[in-house]
């Protein structure tokens, strides 16, 4: 499992997910922790874990505790004022039970369970999360995932990159976050009210070229782990963001 340390992406000027250096780099850095449950005998399927991680990010962003005067709102603002960082760690058994006891939200999907926590300072992880492993385990799909429903939001992974499951989970979370920021309020509300349905798939090369040319939210990695700086990793293809919908 790998960590995604920081990502820049194409986004509106008022989004904290803008490319290039700036004040965000001098600000205190925060990170969004994600923990995936991986029991030895029953690891989750890779696609299930990616989709659960993306939905977990959206669930936290859409939670009332993350906005206004909510108990997580200041932490979320601090996180979004700096570089957007997500770190994926793994847990099993007693480790998972300790993680579940901390404030956060568990999202399930298919064979996967992922718990998301409010952002923490990069140098201030809770000890029960800090001790969890970041590396050493990867995930596979027992069978190729089915084609996604054409009406479903899809986070398309680049076919040109070989990412570990943890890296891909973080990147899928980035893509989901970009989609959330780009959507008008009414579409955000509708997506949240239906439980954030989505799919994560790897695009074929021809489709990837179309997607990256379509003006959809595009995640570019800063290159701190696994892949080269500036690599395009995910396109967020929400139906409401397709050209001509609004």
What does this protein structure show overall?
There is one protein chain. With 246 residues, the protein is α+β, with helices and mostly antiparallel strands. It has a single domain (4-123, 147-241), classed as Bit1, CATH 3.40.1490. It is built from eight helices and ten strands. It has helices at residues 23-26, 46-62, 73-81, 93-100, 127-130, 165-182, 185-193, 205-212; strands spanning 4-10, 30-37, 84-91, 105-109, 112-116, 120-121, 154-157, 199-202, 218-221, 232-237. Strands 1, 2, 3, 4, 5, 6, 7, 8, 9 and 10 form a ten-stranded mixed beta sheet that branches.
Helix-strand blueprint:
Elements: E1 4-10, H1 23-26, E2 30-37, H2 46-62, H3 73-81, E3 84-91, H4 93-100, E4 105-109, E5 112-116, E6 120-121, H5 127-130, E7 154-157, H6 165-182, H7 185-193, E8 199-202, H8 205-212, E9 218-221, E10 232-237
Parallel strand pairs: 2-3, 7-8
Antiparallel strand pairs: 1-3, 1-9, 2-5, 2-6, 4-5, 7-10, 9-10
Helix pairs in contact: 2-6
The count of helical stretches stands at 8
What's the β-strand tally? 10
The CATH class is identified as: Alpha Beta
| Main sheet overview | 10 strands, mixed
Helix percent band: 25-40%
Overall pLDDT: 88
Report how far the terminal alpha carbons are from each other.
39 Å
Provide the gyration radius in Å: 17 Å
Morphology: globular
Series of H and E elements: EHEHHEHEEEHEHHEHEE
CATH architecture: 3-Layer(aba) Sandwich
- The total domain count is 1
Q: Quickly give the structural class.
A: alpha+beta
CATH superfamily: Bit1
